Amino acid sequence: MNSEARIIKLAEVFVKQELEFDSSGHDWWHIDRVRKLALEIAKTEKEADGFISELSALLHDVADEKLNDSKQAGLDKVENWLASNIADKNITNRVMTIIATMSYNGGQNPPMESIEGEIVQDADRLDALGAIGIARTFAYSGAKGTIIHNPEQEFSHFSQMDYRSNGKTAIYHFYEKLLKLKDLMNTPYAKELATKRHDFMEEYLRQFYNEWNLEDNGGL
Ligand code: ADP
Ligand code: NI
Asked: What are phi and psi of 69, to 5 degrees?
């Protein structure tokens, strides 16, 4: 095994152990999907380093604030792991920069500095879309004890942001974040795939409201 393949294997073991008991949508299979997507996108970007993309994808959620005492504590954990397993400081620095800057933050964070960062950010965001994104949203809401939807706190379009934010419903999350992600993709590959997954979510929401309002009975 070459040293890159060895580091990837070690990272898998570390991440599996760190995220073993997570119920906030960051289970191992999320990480595995993001890593595969990142590798796939990297193949379409000729400047991109597949190893940096894959390693950053594997480690990206270990530092998540929700899983650590603070953002800094999470970043320190990843940095310590990198420092003890990789001699090349340049790799550690590149991966740390990606992980420290890739979060959504309401879409307000500055653009990623490297192509690998753009790739991992796209891959993570793509996994929040489509059928899997919908499943993760309801799983997350369930884990937090939030209800599916509350029509009395209705919003028909996300320009109408007067919603009281406590106890945000799962459906609210589509408007708050998921439907905005398509326009935030960095790479052409991700833009195209995001559009498909976005369309599927819109179709899903149409059906959801149709059922909610009993408009799907087709004159039964
Ligand atoms: P990641 O950084 O892996 O994209 P997040 O920590 O932002 O993940 O969220 C994990 C999953 O839970 C994602 O699929 C996200 O869309 C979903 N999620 C995050 N916040 C909420 C929320 N308030 N309500 C419902 N789903 C949420
Ligand atoms: Ni993630």
From this structure: -65, -35
Our count of domains for the chain comes to 1
The residue whose CA is least distant from atom 9 of ligand 1 is 25
- Residue 191 located in a structural domain: yes
Sequence-distant (≥ 6) Cβ neighbours of residue 85 within 8 angstroms: 7, 10, 11
Q: How large is the ipTM? A: 0.97
- Quick one: tokens of 165? 């934010």
Q: Which domain holds residue 100?
A: 3-212
CATH of the domain at 112: 1.10.3210.50
Residue 93 within a domain = yes
What's the CA-to-centroid distance between 98 and ligand 2, angstroms? 13
For residue 146, which atom of ligand 1 is closest to its CA? 24
Render pLDDT for 19-63 as a digit per residue (tens, 0 to 9).
987 766 789 999 999 999 999 999 999 999 999 999 999 999 999
